[in-house]
Design brief:
One of its GO terms (biological process) is phosphorelay signal transduction system. This protein is an alpha/beta fold.
Length: 124
């Protein structure tokens, strides 16, 4: 497996489908998952060598994906953070970019673009 992915997503169906899709289409290994902001922040900040890409939803069981993004703002350049959310307004996209996300993907329309991005960064 090439790319090591950590997923912060509270919907178990979406999470499981994403894990399977990333493994099958992008040769990515999911190294962990979280359903809350606290779980995501704690794992991502204390396991830096263990992940390459964090995929973060904005709405979580507790807290928000914005808190996860904020906690990762000082990450090394080789660690990528993307938001994968249904709440893809221009204002939200802009806010996420200002907070330091590498990319923003709309769950309902941009799963292929997310997969392509995963393949692209795994080849770097």
């Amino acid at each position: 497996m090439g790319l090591k992915v950590y997923i912060v997503e509270d919907n178990p169906v979406i999470r499981e489908n994403l894990v399977d899709t990333l493994q099958e289409l992008a040769d990515a290994e999911t190294v962990g998952v979280a359903a809350t902001e606290k779980e995501g922040v704690n794992w991502l900040t204390s396991h830096l060598p263990e992940w390459d890409l964090a995929i973060v939803d904005l709405f979580l069981q507790q807290g928000t994906g914005l808190g996860v993004v904020e906690a990762c703002k000082d990450r090394p350049d080789d660690k990528k953070v993307v938001v994968f959310s249904n709440y893809a307004t221009n204002d939200v996209r802009d806010r996420c970019v200002q907070m330091g996300v590498d990319k923003f993907f709309d769950k309902s329309r941009e799963i292929d673009a997310l997969i392509d991005y995963c393949i692209e960064i795994s080849e770097q």
